Each structure stands twice: as structure tokens, then as C-alpha cells.
Amino acid sequence: MNKFATLIGASLLTLPAIAAEPWGNADPKAGKALHDNQCVACHVRLYGGDGSKMYTRDGHLLSTKLDILQRVATCNAQTRAGWFPEDEADVAAYLNQQFYHFKD
Ligand code: HEC
To answer: What is the phi-psi region of residue 101: left when phi exceeds 0, alpha when psi lies from -120 to 50, beta otherwise?
Structure first.
């Protein structure tokens, strides 16, 4: 290997890890507030308790972080919550942190 290739190889190895989260740098705290205000009541009506059974029930629908993000976007549209993509990201990050714990 010539010097140039070695240099490129070394710089690739030292690249900082790129954020792997599909929701980027989202804020789960802000997500919790949005979620509790606009989403939880209906889930509580369906499942009782604090409504979290919607996310932890057997056979729940989601299996990846991307699934959460897409489902939140769909629910946002269906319920006309009027959220921006950043809000959807915050809520998805919150749901994963609190309930789903998906690694990818
Ligand atoms: C009018 C009632 C209602 C409202 C309001 C509502 N949801 Fe839901 N949600 C449902 C129902 C019903 C399901 C189950 C759908 C199914 O089983 O196909 C669901 C399922 C979900 C799931 C998937 C659960 C799983 O793991 O299977 C997520 C995530 C979710 N909702 C997020 C939200 C978010 C975020 C909001 C607020 C923007 C919201 N929901 C508002 C009724 C509602």
C-alpha cells in the first residue's frame, strides 16, 4: 500500500461515529409533553391504565426505530395533531426510550 492509501485508510478509521438514530438529535422530554397532551387519552380509552399497554401489548405492531417514526408520523396525520417533523422525531425518541427500547 502506498503512503497515500495508508493516509486515507487511517482517516476513515478515525471518522467520528455518525449518529445512527433515525430521529437524529431529538429531545425525548419535549416528545413526552407532546405525546401526553395529544396522544395518550385515546390509548387510555382503549387499554386503560396509563395507555402504555398500547406499546407493550403482545403482538404490537412495531419492531424497529424506523417503524416508530413512521407510526408517529401516521398518527400525527390521522389525528391532525399538526406536528412538524421535529416534533414527530421527539415523540418517536421518547416512545423508544420509555417503552420500546429498540436497538435498531
Ligand atoms: C383516536 C384514537 C387515537 C389517537 C388520538 C392516537 N392513537 Fe395511536 N393508536 C390508536 C389505535 C387504535 C392504535 C392501534 C392500531 C392497530 O392496532 O392497528 C394505535 C397505535 C399506535 C402506535 C403503535 C403501537 C404498537 O406498538 O403497536 C403508536 C406508536 C401510536 N399509536 C402513537 C400515537 C401517537 C404518537 C399519537 C398522537 C399523535 C396517537 N397515537 C394518537 C389510536 C389512537
So the answer is: left
